[in-house]
Please model this.
Amino acid sequence: MNRLTMVAVVLFALAGCGEGEGNDGQASGGDEKGNETESRCLEVHPKLLRSIETGLTTEGKGTLRDGQAVRSKDYDKVWFVAAELDASGLEGDGDIAVWGTNEDPSKGSSSGLIIRADGLSAEFSDWGSFVGEGSDLDLQVTDEGVQEAKDCVASSQ
Model:
């Protein structure tokens, strides 16, 4: 295992696995009847989207838009960041890719770890994955928060 991968594994392990606590980084809203509903969608700071874009491997310049994030309930300090991926070979809306990060994506920091979390992010970016032997973290498309983040992007369009 190379040094960068080992450092990343250790940092994510320190973030801790297990049931998340609290309602940090979540907003409340209302429905059309005026009832309070809880929304877990967070708008992703453009600085983080630009950081993720640096790892895109699309033909030509790929871009991300409508970034939304959800804090995972499966991990103590993991947010799933979803965004519409626009690139050569991807036509129209609906190409939503998801990455994981260990920093609140609404804050504008780009110093946290970024790893791919679904098939589209794996296909069109070179961000790593911590799947495999010796890894304490194995983000998968079935993790709680991945689909929720995609739903946030779809509803924001």
Summary: The beta strands are 27-30, 36-39, 42-43, 63-71, 79-86, 96-101, 114-116. Helices lie at 3-15, 46-53, 119-124, 146-156. Confidence is low (pLDDT under 50) at residues 1-37.
